[in-house]
User: What shape does this take?
Amino acid sequence: MHSETVAQWQLENDLRQAIANQEFELYYQPIINLKRDRLAGFEALVRWISPTRGFVSPGEFVPLAEATGLIIPLGDWILRTACQQMYQWHQQFTPQPGLTVSINLSSHQFSPDLVQQVEQILAETKLNAQFLKLEITESAMMDNVEKAIALLHQLKALGIKLSIDDFGTGYSSLSYLQQFGADTIKVDQSFVRQMEQSDKNKAIVDIIITLAQKLDMDVIAEGIETENHQHILKALNCEYGQGYFFAKPLKSEDATKLLAQQFSADHVDNSI
Ligand code: C2E
Ligand code: MG
Ligand code: MG
Assistant: This one.
C-alpha cells in the first residue's frame, strides 16, 4: 500500500516535470473512408516520452493528469499543437475540405472556459474551425447533462465538429443522443473486436451504424485490425474506419509522408 502511494506520488512529480519540460508528443492515426479507400483525417493521440520511464501510454498518465488538474495545461498544449499541425498540413497540401483533426477531450476540460479556449486557439493557430473535431465520451457528458448540452451547442456555434467516442461502452441515454448535436459516432473497438465471434455481436455493430445513419450522423468504427473486420464493416455500410489494419498512430513526420503520398495519388476524401 505504502510503496504504491510512493510510486503514485513519483509519477505525479514526473508528470509535473514532463509538462514543464515538454516531454509530450502528438501522434496521428489515420481515419479512412472505407467506401472510397481514402484518407479522411487523423485522430491526435498524446504520448509521453519520459527520459527516465521511457514511453508511457496515455492509459497510464491521462487519468492521473485528470485527478491532479494537470490535464488543463496538458489539454491546452494538445489542442494548440494539433491545430498548428493541421494548419501546417493545409498550407503544405492546399486546403482539403475533408481533412480534419480529431482531438480527445477529457471530462475535466469540459467547463465553460473551454469555449473561449478553443476559440482563442483557433484564432492563434489560424485553423479554420471546420477542420477541428472534438471527441467526447458519453460518460463525460452524462455527469451533468443539461450543462453538457449547452456547452456542446456553444462549441458547435464556433463551427467545429463533435464526435461521441467509445460509443456504447459508457453510461448514456438514447433520449439525449439527438440533443448532443454530435456529427459523428465512434463505434468502440470492443464491439469491432467481438464482431467475428457471433452474429449477435455483429448485430450490435449493425445497430449502432444504423442508429447513426438514421440520426444523420457519420459513423467511424475503431480498432479495425484485420481485413475481415474491414470486410464485415463495409458490408454493414460503415462509412469510416480506423485501426492497426490501416495504420498505427504515426509520428507527425510519418503522417506528413502519408499525406504527400495520398495527395500525389489524389486520395483525400473531400466529403466530410
Ligand atoms: P481513444 O480516444 O478511444 O483512442 C483509441 C485508442 O485505440 C488509442 O490508444 C489507439 O492507439 C488505439 N488503437 C487504434 N487502433 C487500434 C487497433 O486497431 N487495435 C487496438 N488494440 N488499439 C487501437 P491510445 O493512444 O493508447 O489512447 C488510449 C486512450 O487514451 C484514448 O482512447 C483516449 O481516451 C485517451 N487519450 C489518448 N490521447 C489523448 C489526448 O490527447 N487527450 C485525452 N484527454 N485523452 C487521450
Ligand atoms: Mg478518441
Ligand atoms: Mg475511442
Notes: The mean pLDDT is 92.
